[in-house]
């Protein structure tokens, strides 16, 4: 009966953030600046690692892939959000919405597992520094990219297919992109299975990658404590602190919005956390890794001198 009493929807309206023109302009400038920094930072990091042979190490191999993921999943969301700030029409077709959900779900899940692979890389670097390059061969690094790709594909296919098999009778998405909980809430179909699958998969994927990362850092901490010299411990902590910072920020925001009972989802809360992990984190990662990574800083200096800019 619910389906026969509602008008079917063929496009959505993204409500976004602001109603007043002045606030929209300020937000447009703010997010455009962040997106510009994200593009320059991540593409610059990726390009730097590709062209500087001294950065062709396992750690920087993973870092280049992280930059590529950040660049992609930020670009899935931010351009549409910026367009909606300056246009009257905020509509998005069902196909465009499904595509945005698919790519975003893929990139976010892939990044979670890539961060876990990077934690394992840091464990090997600290616990077996002499065998590091042997243990983290090119083949091993490529194999460690398989879980992120598999998790991304499974996450994207499951949620996108299940979501767009629903019937929608409300068109206004109280969000700035086609996030899974926000789209599901518009359906006049029974969404209990969708909400349960979302909670279970988010919990499982987040827990598996999170547990793997935590275990890696427990072993890293034990390895650091076995180092005799204070200087050696300081260098080891410095090596891992950058990655640990990026991991902590990423996981905290994702758990706050996805790993919770569906009935506790709040639109305002969802927007705040979503801004953080879709817009802010992709900008922060290259800044964190460049500021805390002396090898990257040295490589930037070499490139600048090589181009005759200094």
Please sum up the structure shown.
The protein is mostly helical. The chain has eleven helices and three strands, in the order E-H-H-E-H-H-H-H-E-H-H-H-H-H.
Describe the SSE topology.
Blueprint: E1 11-14, H1 21-51, H2 58-86, E2 91-93, H3 94-127, H4 132-135, H5 138-143, H6 146-163, E3 172-173, H7 180-184, H8 192-225, H9 230-257, H10 267-292, H11 294-306
Parallel strand pairs: 1-3
Antiparallel strand pairs: 1-2
Helix pairs in contact: 1-2, 1-10, 2-3, 2-10, 3-6, 3-8, 3-9, 6-8, 8-9, 9-10
The amount of helix comes to: over 70%
The pLDDT mean sits at 82
For the record, give the distance between the C-alpha atoms at the N and C termini, rounded to a whole number.
72 Å
Task: Tell me the series of helices and strands, N- to C-terminal.
Answer: EHHEHHHHEHHHHH
Q: Low-confidence spans: pLDDT under 50, at least 5 residues?
A: none
Radius of gyration: 21 Å
Taken as a percent bin, the fraction of beta residues is under 5%
The count of DSSP E runs of length 2 or more, i.e. the number of strands, is 3
Shape: globular
Query: How many H/I helical runs?
Result: 11
> Strand pairing plus helix content: what structural class?
mainly alpha
Largest sheet: 3 strands, mixed
Spatial sequence of strands, sheet with the most strands = 2-1-3
């Amino acid at each position: 009966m619910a389906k026969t009493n509602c008008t079917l929807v063929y496009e959505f309206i993204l409500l976004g953030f602001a109603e007043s023109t002045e606030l929209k302009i300020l937000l447009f400038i703010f997010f455009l600046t962040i997106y510009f920094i994200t593009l320059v930072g991540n593409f610059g990091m990726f390009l730097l690692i590709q062209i500087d042979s001294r950065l062709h190490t396992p750690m920087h191999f993973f870092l280049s892939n992280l930059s590529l993921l950040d660049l992609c999943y930020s670009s899935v969301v931010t351009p549409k959000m910026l367009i909606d700030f300056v246009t009257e029409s905020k509509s998005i077709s069902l196909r465009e919405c499904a595509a945005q959900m698919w790519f975003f779900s893929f990139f976010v899940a892939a990044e979670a597992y890539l961060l876990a692979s990077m934690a394992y890389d840091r464990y090997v670097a600290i616990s077996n520094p002499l065998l590091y390059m042997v243990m983290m061969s090119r083949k091993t690094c490529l194999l460690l990219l398989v879980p992120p790709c598999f998790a991304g594909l499974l996450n994207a296919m499951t949620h996108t297919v299940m979501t767009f098999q629903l019937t929608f009778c409300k068109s206004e998405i109280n969000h700035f992109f086609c996030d899974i909980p926000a789209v599901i809430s518009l359906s006049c179909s029974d969404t209990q299975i969708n909400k349960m699958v979302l909670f279970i998969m988010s919990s499982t994927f987040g827990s598996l990658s999170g547990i793997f990362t935590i275990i890696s850092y427990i072993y890293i901490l034990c390895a650091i404590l076995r180092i005799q010299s204070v200087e050696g411990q300081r260098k080891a902590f410095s090596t891992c602190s950058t990655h640990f910072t990026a991991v902590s920020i990423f996981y905290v925001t994702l758990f706050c919005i996805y790993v919770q009972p569906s009935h506790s989802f709040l639109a305002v809360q969802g927007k705040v956390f979503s801004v953080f992990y879709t817009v802010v984190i992709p900008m922060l990662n290259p800044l964190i890794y460049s500021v805390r990574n002396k090898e990257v800083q040295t490589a930037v200096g070499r490139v600048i001198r090589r181009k005759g800019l200094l």
